[in-house]
Amino acid sequence: MSKNLLLIFTRNPELGKAKTRLAKTVGDETALEIYKFLLKKTRDISAKVASDKAVYYSVKVRENDIWDPKIYQKHQQIGEDLGIRMRNAFENGFKASYDKVMIIGSDLFDLTSEIIDDAFHQLENNDVVLGPAEDGGYYLLGMKSLEEKIFKNKDWGTATVRAKTLLDLKDKKVHLLKELNDVDVFEDIKDHHAFQQFLK
Length: 200
Hints:
The protein has one domain (about 5-195): Spore Coat Polysaccharide Biosynthesis Protein SpsA, Chain A, CATH 3.90.550.10. The protein is built from 5 helices and 7 strands, in the order βααββαβαββαβ. It has helices at about 20-25, 30-45, 80-95, 115-120, 160-170, and strands at about 5-10, 50-55, 70-75, 100-105, 130, 140-145, 175. It has a 7-stranded mixed sheet, with helices on both faces. A hairpin with a 5-residue loop joins strand 5 and strand 6.
């Protein structure tokens, strides 16, 4: 068992429920195809990370899917909002005796295994590591102990999340990774080479 745990939050890939803001422009079917593409990319980069890994499903744990149970622990997200669901997942990790626990989402094409490995490394000398997203949120969050307050009193999915999170952590040593863009709306992909195959 590694002392590091990578949590991966995913949505079950279902038509009409994946990438709903993107779907307003490209349609439900294309949005679902793009989300499946992003899921596979997340799987491929996370598989190379030197840590234990756990996938947290939004709706229901799937046995026969892209996540190999020999590599990924499988759990369901529990809680009424994203903050509570993340807090519960972190708590599970620390209760299972991991020293460093980190979370990523599954909608970042530009995230690499090197960035995640570096984030675990940065936790050697920092309390928290945060990967800022261009939309004002964050794409990665890692810590060595459960920082309860950062999961409370946030308008999840809005541009205020990162600023409020950093305010909660003003007494902690925080390392910021480079800013990346997650895929939420059409503008995030329209000029990106990797997504042109879906936009013909």
